[in-house]
Amino acid sequence: MADMTADKPLISLQNVNKHYGDYHALRGINLDIRQGEFFSLLGPSGCGKTTLLRTIAGFEDYDTGSVMISDRDMRGVPANKRPTNMVFQSYAIFPHLSVIENVAFGLRKASMSKSEKMRAAEAALEMVGLKGYGHRAAHALSGGQRQRVALARALVLKPKVLLLDEPLSALDRKMREQMQVELIKLQREVGITFILVTHDQEEALVMSDRIAVMFEGEIAQCDDPEVLYRKPNSKRVADFIGVMNFLPATVRKEGETYLAEIAGLGETEITEAQCPGGVPVGEATVGFRPETLTLLYEGQSATHREAPAVVDEVVYYGDMTYYDVRFEGVEKPVRISMRNIFGRDVLGVGTQVRVSWSPGALVVFDQSA
Amino acid sequence: MAASGRIRRFFRTEQGIGMLLVSPTALYALLLLAVPLIAIFVISFWTQTGVRDFDTAFTLANYKEALTDPLYRQLMLRSLMVSGLVTLITVVLAFPIAYFVSFGVKPEHKSLWIFLITIPFWTSYLIRVFLWKVILGYNGVLNSGLQAVGIIEEPLSFILYNVNAVIITLAHAYAPFAILPIFVALEKIDRSLLEASRDLGESRTMTFLRVTLPLAAPGVVAAVLIVFIPTIGDYVTPRLVGGPGGLMIANMIQTQFLRLNNAPLGATLAVLAMLIVAVIAIAFLILGNRAAGGKKGARK
Amino acid sequence: MKSLKTYAILYLIFLYAPIFLLPLFAFNSSTIIAFPLESFTTEWFTELLTLSEMHGALLNSLKIAVTSAVLATTLGIFAAMAVSRYSFPGQKGIMGFIMLPLVLPEIIVAVSLLIVILRMGLDTGAWSVIAGHTLICTPFAIAILQSAFAALDPSLEEAAYDLGETPASTFRLVTLPLVMPGIISALLISFTISMDEFIIAFFLTGAEPTLPVYLFSMLRFPKLLPAVMALGTILVVLSILLITIAEFFRRRGAKRTGNDTGGFL
Predict the structure, then answer these.
(1) ipTM, 2 decimals?
(2) Which of B:221-240 have CB within 8 Å of C?
(3) pTM of the model
(4) Complete edge-to-edge strand list for the sheet that includes strand A294-296
């Protein structure tokens, strides 16, 4: 029995649809989010991720389907009655209240004494690293501080779910990276389910236990970061998360094995596990990440397979160098990322090189997927 | 039942809440503005028979009288001329001010300037007009001052109780009305557009003519309308500084209503004045839009 | 820019010239309003105290101005909230009509209201002036309040709602405090407009004149003109004071919500 309740999702969305007039904003969303999970909704702008978050928060109605939180149907339950709290993109810090008044805002109707409320608010402030900031005016805070206040204000209510709408997009890069780490730590500490909306794939990969990638109102893939990165289920997801090279291929079956003839790389055996959409016999596309390829220097030999290529473009990044190379007979350049090692020269454009590649790192897609 | 449910649902939508919220104000304007305006239109076709009694039979007699009597025609033409001149003067005088505040004043001082410009507008109109009478009068500030300094021997008499005085006073009263819309339009101009024009080889003057002025056009159009429309119906200024030769249509409307007790004729004059203003305003807007429309197309 | 600045300063002098003359004559002992000035006196201000009719008019005006300001601001809040938050069918037309008194000659408003009141067999009085003043003050109130509401980040209200407040308590705890400077500003502006308005009051005032209507009747008596100057001085000083306070509140509101659009209208 205990196991059964542990397995039950905290939030469960079934076939949720929403229209704005003629525009189909959410298309048959099915999603289960577990207790204590750090979950991200990732997608380009206009994909419906914020609408989905606001649907869970209770700010948006949906046309059909159901939203359940802790086994309770949320239809007709307004935002102020839901066990969710939100960190807004603009942070929505009340400008007429002090920091501590902002944090204690939601405790107004709580059945505790005034001093208990203040203590709870102080504790929340301490948790986000703003101890002693309570009596500052809200409008005198920096962007990062405002974000912490918004976090404290939501967490002080001990919600079942914390919803974060692009909370880091207004911060500069350094601050954003610092806050990413702090948010992960904070989430582990409080053990509350976090749902993060972001358009930044790197941020989602760094922070989340699981990610739902959304395009045009639909969830394209929902998996943990590593699976998403290694085994994207479509070219679109592959392209959105990180960089993926694509080369045309032809797949045929010979006995019990599948063989793929890849442009520029030659023939190799592939397994069903490498084909997220089933084995596409016939015309296909193979994808591989830049770091799965290696340029071979003089005297080095390939661990798996190798193919000749010409360096087409070199982009130097300090710790890394990106090479765009062309395999024989392939028009489209392929990107290779190489860690720069002291004493090894960066190769020039036009250099003839050998490229080591591993058949196991390939993902094979249907031509159309 | 279904219909009432549908109505209830509508008032929970975005549009429904908006309608519901605006309805008290809209209802107020409907009852106290729309109904009276319709009433005045209807009454213009009636005939007054007693103090509060009307013959409600439809007649065009008032319009016939208003349009043929040379007195009314003269008042109407004079009102149009005064309004037109006042509009021209205020807008021409206002543009450099708006330009100066928008381009020549530090951003943190802009709202102070605008505030200074608008303050006189918020003080009693009646008192301001009366002061112009004091300034322009035969023994007024201007004449007594000029005489004291010895520039003139005899007081100037062409500056009070005539059309000139009306124009000067109205131009003064409506100055902020002309400045604000032009200022707003100038503020909206992206400053990099001007730099782009200079960068592409245009002189300061040509940049002003080819970029600033066309982009400020909507503000100028708004300024013209916001000055022209109310001045035509001004009552206080002609009454206090206009003398018999400077009276305008509003004075006649007041006379018909409160002195001659001929509300239908007063209503007719009011309707005609509004119609003429509306026609001129619409014609001006169409012309303005056409001028701006071509440029908008080019901008795209 | 330098010659423009000179022009701007001359222009400001032109704008303020009549107002600056007021106190000169209000404190001048001559009964004729002309230069050269004679000696300093406060006689005309003390004379105001003896004009009991004026006191009635003043009270009447205050009563009308306060009522009109409250009504216009209330109507303004509804309309400003509606346009800054929601879009509804016919929005442009409806708002255009509500804002129409901004450009409509006041005499049109006055006579059309008068005709309806008389046709309905009612008598004019303070109430009809209030009705007219509310109509002309509402557009000004809307203009001020609309920018106050527009400056308010809608996610602030969502945040309050998300933190457990009801729509009503959200309005009380978040919306109202943040737009309060705009509301005060709208009240003061409406009050000032109503206090100074002449035409509508002239047509609709009935037996009890408002201050401007009484002042207009004073203008016919040359003997009373110095007192008019004194009264005018007081009114102008009061108007400037109220407008400055209104501007102060408007700016404070803009500062709080974090964006200053600058200036009225």
Answers:
(1) 0.86
(2) 225-226, 229-230, 232-236, 240
(3) 0.82
(4) A294-296, A352-357, A305-316, A320-327, A334-339
